[in-house]
Amino acid sequence: MKETLGLIGLIAIVVCWIPQTYESIKRGYTNMNLYFLLIYFIGSLSLTIYAIGNYVFFTLNFLASVGSLINLYFKFFPRVRTNPKKVNEISSCHEKQAQS
């Protein structure tokens, strides 16, 4: 029973990273907070090493490390440069044109 709960937790936490990581890959950048990503990666990597021998927690922390590492990559090396002010200006122009 305890192992089943661990597997459910593993799946739930890993599944939470999938939409964000998919969006980062699709867009080529992430808006996630850099400090959150760095601290999360360090924490999950440390717990991965600590959990060697316990496959549930090792797998959970390993996959969480991979998810945060992918997002860190797109934070440091975005494929697309974004300027939030420019994006807002463009969207308001499109809204004005649509209203005309």
Automatic annotation (TrEMBL):
GO cellular component: membrane
Pfam families, alphabetized: PQ-loop
InterPro entries assigned: PQ-loop_rpt
Domain of life: Bacteria
Membrane topology note: Multi-pass membrane protein
Keyword Membrane set for record: yes
Cell compartment(s), UniProt: Membrane
Keywords: Membrane, Transmembrane, Transmembrane helix
Keyword Transferase: no
Transmembrane stretches, start-end: 6-22, 34-52, 58-76
Listed Gene3D superfamilies: 1.20.1280.290
Name of the protein in question: MtN3 and saliva related transmembrane protein
Lineage: Bacteria, Pseudomonadati, Candidatus Kryptoniota, Candidatus Kryptobacter
